[in-house]
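Teaching note: in complex prediction, the entire set of molecules is handled at once rather than each chain in isolation. The prompt given to students was simply: 'Predict the structure of this complex.' The entities are:
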Amino acid sequence: MSKTIMTVDDSASIRQMVGFTLKKEGYSVVEAVDGKDALSKLKGPIHMVITDLNMPNMDGIELIRNIRAQAAYKFIPIIMLTTESQAGKKQEGKTAGATGWIVKPFKPEQLIAVVQKVLR
Amino acid sequence: MAGDDIHRQAFREEADELLMELEASLLELEAQPGNAELINKVFRAMHTLKGSGAMFGFDDIAVFTHDVESVFDRVRNGEITITKRLLDLTLGSCDHIKWLLETPDAANEAENKGPELLAGFRSFLPGQEPQGAPGGTDDAAAPQQELEKVESIYRIRFRPDPMIFSSGSNPALFIEDLGEIGACKAFLYMDKVPPLDEIDPFLCYVWWDVLLRSSERVEEIQDIFAFVEDQCELVIEPIAREDEACESLISKKLGEILVERGDIDPEILNSALSSQKRLGDILTSAGIVSEHQVESALAEQQAAKEFKDRRAPQTPAAASSSIRISAEKLDLLVDLVGELVIVQAQIKQAVAKSGDVFLNSLSEQLERLSDDLRDSTLGIRMLPIGATFNKFRRLVRDLSAELGKEIELVTSGEETELDKTVIERLGDPLVHLLRNSIDHGIESPDERQAKGKPRAGVVSLSAEHSGGEVIIRIADDGAGMDPGRIRAKAVERGLIAPDAELSDKDVYSLIFLPGFSTAEKVTSVSGRGVGMDVVKRAIDQLRGGVEIDSQRDKGSVISIRLPLTLVIINGLQIRIGEEHYVIPLSIVEECVGLSRHGGPADQSQIINLRGESVPFIRLREWFEIEGTPPSIEQIVITSVDGMRVGLVVDNVIGEHQTVIKSLGRIYRDVEGLSGATIKGDGSMALILDVPGLLRAINEQPATYREN
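The expected output is the structure of the full assembly:
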């Protein structure tokens, strides 16, 4: 069975690029536009979450905390998309329970490398 | 790339929307400059433009937006207040971004307001140097210097934080990742794992010591652990480099390694060393280090040694493990062992007669020793057949080139051992058979293609043990043999009668008859018809057998059965009148009684053995031995070339270690005998060559029947 990855980003182009790249690698993809949307779609088999940090309604940090609070997703890998100017955010994300991060901008190959690193 | 274009287009549309939103927010912000949500919106819009822009190749937008974003980050944090000038600048930058989007190559420098706008923004960022393009991720950073890759051994200690699972990390995956960049040996420590009822399944109790041999640098190894660097204790130490001498490391004592790793103090080591026990045991029993830590440190010594061995392969140590001696010395040794076995058998017989218990136990001891000596001496003569197989690679290559065929030689069972003499004498027959397979068996590439087979033919050469024998098979996936053609040829050559009834197998074995060749044209490779009968004879001389199986268009398989050794065999000793004979035990299947009813005229020459008709031969008659056979004779059932034949003898004496002595020149060609041996009492017994005997009988049926 292919693994399902949820990608959360308010930028449609990033969502498209991430979704496109993951699908090409054979993963199923669930898209969400922000933290709130993501939480409402977080049910069933979600094996991994890739989330942006800066989003309206509910940001990435808050989303990670909420995901970790649910027993079913307590240990799934969560990767955050950060920019190099957000060193502090990265730390905040780790504390909230993020598994790792990808620094924007990134290439599709880097995304896949990170996914394969944490999702086996 | 099409994918890129789709993403770039998506970004353009998104950016247009963002810019419209941004403009609206900025205008609203003019009315209510303190509105935090609006400020956030502006920041996020800039942030997205920067991040996505860089992702899809709009680097100029990313560079430009970076400074705008930084200013708004400060506004967000209350460090800068919104002013009319800031809003003007920001609105100006919206226009600039739009311009950048529409003129991707920024061709028209005169219209480029970027530098002017940036200068304006930078006035809000005191003391900050203008930044270049946003750097990529760690691994996308500026082209890394191509450092010379040198293999090193690293010692990596990885103690994950107990809470590591809560960040969705699986620590075992990092160990797997290490395995992907080099050879690694991981030691798992479970000393911190509590008793079962105290275990919290959400906590990680284990830790690792890993020895890694890799050409990656420390930084690259650290990268593997990047996500958990603050959730673990990670020590990566290079302990040896390929281009450095690692002698110091090999000579490093266990204690030194443990001290270096910080597992023990030097003082503890010294006090421990004053004891006489092995260091590892001392440290373990003293509870200073766990058995595991000792094991891991020992493995490090080992790894360094292996590392060194790899650098200097086949040092004198390897050479001293084998010596070369002349074959004559070896033959002499085998002869002597043979004599010893004979004398031992004589002693055994003499001692058994004397009934002396002490001598008897000595004799038994001698028997055991001479058996061992015989086995190990014969073992010295055993050589793997692989070297012979390898010689054929060149032959196959050259022949297939010469004949314009594509042939692959596949070998298996190279490790199968055979007596040196057998291997030496096997070379020529195998060459003949291989040539035959290549020349007559495998078709030309075009012919093969027409038959729907791969263009390249496969000839496989295999050896395997089967009981006391070795079976060598030469198989090809060629045309196979045509029984009709072989038959026709045999009739034409007068080898068989036109109406002879022969099974396919019998027909195939006709090719072993002298003067037989089925190839339509004679080639330089094979096919003068002098090959196969020579092959058959050579194998017979080795006391082996040869068999052919073939299927049209599927190929042929030639199986050669060979005894393991030619010097000493297990034999069954039998008696006829006063004469003793030995039948090689490898062909004996069973012994049954035969009661004699009626005279010789009544002889049916066939016995019903559990419903199977088995022909038999009266050896007494064949060897013309005087005297009357006992009322109950024995039949030794032998299996020759897959056929069962009974040999009628007076008495079966038993198993006998048979040292084969060849017969003198005069007797060498006697049909049915392959040699002689000396029995325990010093008298002689002849060794029967059963296949030869059967051939001889078949060739002169008239003479035999007259008897």
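Point out the following to students. Residues 152-311 of chain B form one domain. The CA atoms of residues 147 and 217 of chain B lie 9 Å apart.
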